[in-house]
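Researcher: Let's continue the batch. This sequence belongs to RAB5B, member RAS oncogene family, and it's 214 residues. Same format as the previous ones, please.
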Amino acid sequence: MQCLGYFAVKSGTADLGNQFKLVLLGDMAVGKSSLVLRFVKGQFDEFQETTIGAAFLAQSVCLDDTTVKFEIWDTAGQERYHSLAPMYYRGAQAAIIVFDITKPETFERAKAWVKELQRQASPNIVIALAGNKADLAEKRLVEYEEAQTYAEDTGLLFMETSAKTAMNVNELFLAIAKKMPKTDTQNPTHAARHRGVNLQDPDAHSTRACCGGN
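Model: Same format as before. Here are the structure tokens for RAB5B, member RAS oncogene family:
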């Protein structure tokens, strides 16, 4: 298990209670799959294939006293797959709704996704809004302030991201991880699971603050 965050964590120490389902939603070609690829593998593919239905990946984030594992469902953006979306966001504890800052219509579509999640998803779901393709800022048609104000008004996390340059990609997932309910670290059973992590263990994954790339 690879771990993004601040501390070295021995492989296999993620608590089962700290696994969360996360779904990505948004219009076609806004970069959902590219964000996931950058987060999970630290890679970017200029010619990312279109997702059909949904794709599943997993990645973990290390916080100060725990490890959060995300089970990520990357959904297709084509309209014909919209009816399948509830199957993927049902039971999700977190969602990232992605839009392209150069295409205002994708921002309007993102707002529609927010309304749908607030109406039909889990009542405590953590929703993040990602204004992707920030590397194309000179072509932007959705102003940062407009998206930020909308996010504040609707209680969302918001960041502008770039899967291409890795800008804010890991930071976005880290911010979501911090919002997730954590297993009680004072619980003796929980503590026993995490006892004996050797930071000098050659099998440990040394990780740093998220700054683009794994």
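Researcher: Any comment?
Model: Residues 104-120 form the longest helix (17 residues).
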